[in-house]
Automatic annotation (TrEMBL):
This is Enoyl-CoA hydratase. InterPro entries: ClpP/crotonase-like_dom_sf, Enoyl-CoA_hyd/isom_CS, Enoyl-CoA_hydra/iso, Enoyl-CoA_hydra_C. Pfam families: ECH_1. GO terms for molecular function: catalytic activity.
Length: 265
């Protein structure tokens, strides 16, 4: 009997100056596991220190990009007392590094991007989306607080009113609307997503890398999501949300596939 070896949660491929990260938990819509977060953070730190590649790509396997935090109650409720610290040393650092590393970053989004997955996509310099991509801000549905730089990015790119509506009412953006609003660089089909991403990545990897890095630095100077103080505030707000009764009810209701009964505490 042949035993199949487990694939890592994060796949990495280096070719022609491009480093591609593939979120690889298709059975969980590529929800962020601890191993995935830790390896991505480690790889980005290494990339910042060595600058071995001239373009980075983020994508997902199995028809999803990334659904954010793993909402398995046993997993997420166990993080209630540590969430502020783990955010500051985890997802906050990942978002900051995606903005800080002075090479272009592309997010290739197919299917669902939810929660922190939206933040990872928005942290990229370019977003290429398939026509079945959908961006879901479901934080409020479980009583959580937005994280991964999502609010800062959306306020900057589409305005406070629309960002508040999406975050508070748990709305979503379809691929064509993301393109219309200027969030997406290119809208394509699922079958063409990989090819279009490879074409753009190759072009960027052969371009004026120092110029690109300077452009990122200037953009970051005008972008609140790149400010460590904003990311620290996100962690503080999330800690308050995780400590609430509403959060426990929201996660439980999600797992039981019923409507949450929030009490405002």
């Amino acid at each position: 009997m042949t035993q199949r070896l487990a694939m890592p949660d994060l796949l990495e491929n280096s070719a022609d100056g491009v480093l591609t990260f593939t979120f690889n938990r298709a059975e969980r819509r590529n929800a962020l596991s601890p191993a995935m977060r830790e390896r991505l953070l480690m790889a980005l730190v290494e990339e910042r220190n060595t600058l071995r590649h001239r373009a980075l790509v983020l994508t997902g396997s199995g028809g999803s990009f990334c659904s954010g935090a793993d909402l398995d109650p046993a997993v997420i409720l166990s993080r209630r007392s540590t969430i502020e610290g783990t955010m500051k040393t985890g997802i906050n650092q990942i978002v900051a590094l995606l903005r800080e590393i002075p090479v272009p970053v592309i997010a290739a989004v197919d299917g669902a991007a939810a929660g922190a997955g939206v933040g990872l996509a928005l942290a990229a310099d370019f977003m290429i989306v398939s026509d079945r991509a959908e961006f879901q801000l479901a934080f409020a549905r479980i009583g959580a607080s937005p994280d991964a730089g999502v609010i800062a990015q959306l306020v900057h790119k589409i305005g406070a009113a629309r960002a508040s509506t999406l975050a508070m009412l748990g709305g979503s953006l379809k691929a064509d609307e993301a393109e219309r609003l200027g969030l997406a660089h290119l809208l394509t089909t699922p079958g063409q997503l990989s090819e279009e991403t490879s074409k753009l990545a190759a072009r960027l990897a052969q371009g004026p890398t120092i110029s690109y890095g300077n452009t990122k630095r200037l953009v970051n100077a005008m972008l609140p999501a790149a400010d460590p103080r904003y990311l620290a505030l996100e962690a503080e707000c999330q800690a308050r949300a995780f400590a609430s009764h509403d959060f426990e009810e929201g996660v439980t209701a999600f797992s039981e596939k019923r409507k949450a009964v929030f009490q405002g505490r």
